[in-house]
Amino acid sequence: MFSRWLSRFVRRHSIGLAVVAILVAVYLTWYVPTFGYGGQLFGTLLSALLQLLFLMLLVVMQFVAIFWFMGRARVYWLAPEECGLTFEDYRGNRSVLEFAQRTVTLLRGVSRFKDMGGEVPRGLLLVGPPGTGKSYLAQAIAGEAQVPFCYASAPSFQNMFFGVGNLQIMGLYRKARRMAQEYGACIIFIDEIDAIGMSRSSGANGLGGGLFGGSSGMLNQLLLELDPPNVESGWSQRLLRQMGLRRGKAERANVFTLAATNLPEVLDPALLRPGRFDHKITVDAPDMDGRLDLLRYYLGKVKHAPDFPLQRAAAETIGFTPVMIKHVINQAVVVAHFEDRDEMNHRDFTEAREMWEWGLRQPIRAMSQEDRRRLAYHEAGHAVARYLLSSTKDRLVKVTIIRHGEALGFAAWKPIEERYTASEQELRAELKTMLASRAAEEIFLDMKLSGVLDDLRRATQLAGALVGAWGMEGSLYSALAFPGIGPSAQDAASKRMIERLLNQSMDSVKRLLEEHREFVQAVAEALMANDELTGDEVEEIARRLGVRAPVEESFQFSPAGAAARLSLPAASPLRSQAQGREGEEHQD
């Protein structure tokens, strides 16, 4: 009993006891040596001992100072009134916003919810491509709930010294629990959580020990902090419990963890279980209604023409994320400013959008006529094939032989509306369009050019997916079922099937271009004369030659649609169908 009391007394009064010990040591050092030879000898020995202890203490203090400095997490803390964002500022995804509102309701009414016997969720994982507004949503949740908000980047926890990241995570949650006791709740947002949350079974977490280690230790610490045992987090509560004045169940602080990642498939399963991240929400690019909402919101912040066509702008930005739309509107204001105008209009919006999608327009004025002719027939092959093979859901929007970014020329098309699936007929039409450049070179130039490098790469990928992923070439066997074991594009059998499909597509598109020689030559000559053509101008050439128009005549963006320049960023032929095939662009 006495030993327990003594240890408790030392822990409580450790600072005071240290001060007394220092005073006694000073007294013995300076006053005892004055009492004879024995006192001087004792003082000398004591002085040497104290100097040795001082040097040891100095070394320890240096290490403590270094680890204290490195162990402080590099995070941003925002008071409830500092966030400045609410749900009125989050636009483009109504379903996600409704779920966020339910989360805020729980954070506000914790006591009432607990009285019903429920447990407040501890975590929410936001998954989605870059720029979809995951960080923005986290700040809006904190601002709406009026609780402290902490922004932390997971890579900032990584350190060359093993264990420092653990200290940072411990300190972060310790402070969050204190803030939660003061405000009722606290929100921690960890961006790019895959940096420390990778699966431990993958071997990518760096499981080495010693002074230099990987992020496995940080993951273990994070798992503990997300779902800790019921312990007292304040020193006063711990003191009262040790004195026997506080009994019963310890109250857990209401710390809510939000996290975001672009790579949910690499996260450790222990991180995703209920009780840590209770929900996983996909935040994807907005649909038509979401883009209209975003355009209204961001256009309301800038001066723009009263007749700005919102519907047309929303149709032109299929697949754009909120950050992309915000960027394009801001760049449109820049274009208007440097043209000495006070308002942004749709032409400025179109110029800014095309620069974002295709890069800066950089004509090569010294290009020879022979190179221009080669480029013209190359791109005319793409354009004509797409025009003739497209369904009523696609529209050719532009073909050019002017350099944009790294592309010497391209033909671009886009869907008229969002598409989330693709049929075999549509995929085969896309494959033929990719090969149409080489077909046009062989038919009209009697040569093969190096500009088909990207076309052949993408065509081979698409053919491989048709053969071994989508079951559209006579076999239902999927090479994706056994990654690393199943047949690949390098296998002899798979290669023969892919090559046969590519050759069949090439023969088919060659026949198509041969049947419409006059159409291809007219488009190529117009390109050499004008450098670029819009989709409407290609349609005009087709009507003049009596070629059928595949796109429904009822579709019009606006009465002025004849001169529209529509586009969409490039899309890989192997994109997930869940994301939709937003459009294609061939760069050579």
Protein described:
Helices cover 51% and strands 9% of the residues. It contains 21 helices and ten strands. By secondary structure, it is an alpha/beta fold. The protein is elongated, with a radius of gyration of 34 Å. The protein has four domains: 19-70; 76-199 and 213-232 and 249-282, P-loop containing nucleotide triphosphate hydrolases (Rossmann fold, 3-Layer(aba) Sandwich), CATH 3.40.50.300; 288-358, Orthogonal Bundle (Helicase, Ruva Protein, domain 3), CATH 1.10.8; 369-587, Up-down Bundle (Methane Monooxygenase Hydroxylase, Chain G, domain 1), CATH 1.20.58.760. 34% of the residues are buried. Helix 7 (164-183) links the parallel strand 3 and strand 4. Residues 206-213 and 551-588 have low confidence and may be disordered.
Helix amount, in percent?
Answer: 40-55%
Distance between the termini: 85 Å
Biggest β-sheet description:
6 strands, mixed
Number of domain modules:
4
Strand order of the largest sheet: 1-3-4-5-2-6
Structural class per helix/strand content? alpha/beta
Alpha-carbon Rg, integer: 34 Å
Q: Multimeric state of these chains?
A: single chain
Shape: elongated
Unreliable segments (pLDDT under 50, ≥5 consecutive)?
Answer: 206-213, 551-588
The CATH class label of the largest domain is: Mainly Alpha
Give the overall pLDDT as a whole number: 80
The DSSP helix count reads 21
Q: Label the CATH architecture of the largest domain.
A: Up-down Bundle
- Classified in CATH, the superfamily of the largest domain is Peptidase M41
